[in-house]
């Protein structure tokens, strides 16, 4: 039996097509093959569809590579001015001239912290490029969970200011240390809180 053998055929008008041959041998009483009985299916459209899928896959891979390169380049371009913002705000925080009030210093501290958070987000964009390239790495370190949560919650003070929303921390009293990737855990908590604020008109987020 011959099944799904792809062969190039020629029509009476001289044009050619790719066909799938399915045939079975007809034998005599001595088990000798007399002839083959079967049919040929024109699979030209199927082959063209397969080629189109391959082409689309190659185009998608090329597009993904271009996107990754763009993200990496933009990340580098953004980090330079952002590092300057963080650096200058840290200089001002020293308040060497003694001209800033406690409220001013608090605002400068928020600028510095949010700048660092934004820098972390930009680094996450680079991480996405690494994921696509199969080079993602987890940076493990010893992390104080309570301190991490407190630092993370402080980033949302301006966001909920003036809104009927209370953001509270109900963590355990005992210090809890984790061996984890601090930046990635912080981003997970930030995503959860951001979603909670987005879908809470009023009330308490714990």
Q: In percent, how much strand structure appears in the residues?
A: 15-25%
The radius of gyration computed from the alpha-carbon positions, rounded to a whole number of angstroms, is: 33 Å
Could you tell me the mean pLDDT?
A: 82
**Helical/strand content category:** alpha+beta
Strands, total number: 7
Q: Which shape, going by the Cα principal axes?
A: elongated
How many angstroms does the end-to-end distance come to? 70 Å
Low-confidence stretches: none
Q: Strands of the biggest beta sheet: in what spatial order?
A: 1-2-3
List keywords for this structure.
5 helices; elongated; alpha+beta; single chain; 206 residues
How would you sum up this structure, described in words?
The chain has 206 residues and is an alpha+beta fold. It has helices spanning 44-93, 102-132, 145-154, 157-160, 182-198; strands spanning 2-10, 16-27, 33-42, 141-144, 165-167, 177-180, 203-205. The protein has a three-stranded antiparallel sheet, with helices on one face. The longest helix is centred in the first third of the chain and has 50 residues, at 44-93. 0% of the residues are buried. The mean pLDDT is 82.
